[in-house]
């Protein structure tokens, strides 16, 4: 019988809580749900108002993984959904918005990563985020990503844009910034321009094209996630890796001091302490008054 729990007055069904999702650490589905529930204060503000794509891995990272963009069958009627634009060939679709703790616990029961667009559902034609995904091609590591991130920080600052770093929760880094007054197309073009500049400035280290043969030993500066249809892992989401790694905000001091490939890996059990000591390092992104217009 599926247990039912009450969360802020909503009845939420939770299933298979004893299932081990991460065999190397013994991390269970119950621990995953607990992680999301106890991190809600930091996570929810980064989800609110944004259509969510779920990367689901109900049998753990070694099992089947699949993206869910449309509202899943069986979604409770009290979960907020919204019609959102898709490509010209697909037409609009209806997606979930995780707006509150009951919705977050319900979504956690799906066993999922959370991925969001760089725009709000109330204004889908205007990007409010700029993102760079720094992806190292072996033998490059996150250490090399940190070098590239520091270059991008200074280059963005020259345009009056403040960047905030977080781990990808896998092997790279993400840089996010709050922007205003631009379409996704304009933001993508700006990001691509900076990626090209980075490759020119750091030719032994950076590649801006996705071509696999160009990427070994270099950091791919993925600017394409600024496209309106693309999504990026939300701050504090768990990732479908061998350990319960988190896409965790980090300080620039941590980026500057990164000296080994495991130096910027954070697991679910690390996040409560970091939030107590550092707060939400990405909270400034939620303040619309700091958003910067692109040059």
UniProtKB/TrEMBL annotation:
Xref: InterPro entries: LigD_pol_dom (IPR014145), MtLigD_Pol-like (IPR033649), NHEJ_LigD (IPR052171)
This protein's UniProt keywords: Ligase
UniProt-recorded Gene Ontology molecular function terms: DNA ligase (ATP) activity
This enzyme's EC code(s): 6.5.1.1
Domain DNA ligase D polymerase per the UniProt entry, residue ranges: 28-281
Matching Pfam families: LigD_Prim-Pol
Domain of life the protein comes from: Bacteria
NCBIfam families assigned to the protein according to its UniProt record, in alphabetical order: ligD_pol
Protein name: Non-homologous end-joining DNA ligase
Origin species: Streptomyces pyxinicus
Phylogenetic placement of the source organism: Bacteria, Bacillati, Actinomycetota, Actinomycetes, Kitasatosporales
